[in-house]
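User: Before I run my own analysis I want an independent prediction to cross-check against. Here's the chain; please return only the structure tokens and, at the end, one sentence I can use as a sanity check.
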Amino acid sequence: MIKNLPNYFECLADFDHYLDKNDDNLIAFGNLIRQRAYRHNYPAIDDEAVLELVRYALRRAEHQNKISANIVQVNDLLDEAHYCWEKNGSKGTLTAEYVAMALAAKKRRTGRLSETWLDEIKEQQVLISTEGEFIGKVNGLTVLEIGDSVFGTPLELQQRFMPEVKALRILNVRLI
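Assistant: Structure tokens:
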């Protein structure tokens, strides 16, 4: 056992969340995907499947000139694509079809919560005041990010004026 292990790591490492979108980085990113597949004894991945995984990283960056450096998310999608490939009893290469299947399954899973909220609003289980005037009440929207899913949910803010401190005070924040 190394007694002074913390002393070996005294420099602060700063990792960027994004890479510039250029040919060198795109090729290197594709190679990382292929290396992971090789290390995990996955079948060979065709070029279209690698391209879909790289496109996924580009979408995750939410910037047209950047690629997400979060390889973990891409690896998770690759693992799920491999699972779909195995589940179908496939032989040969892992194709873009399996990446698309994995992406669809991921969207179904992460989209369930937002669909539940929307259903509750449609079924009037969640009531949103959209007519009339109320002093000290305002409807708002909170944005939730759960996994790959980003969606808004309504909320109601209630406030009152406190003359003794000459200030507004948020009285209640209620997710509708």
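Sanity check: The chain has two domains: 14-108, 127-175.
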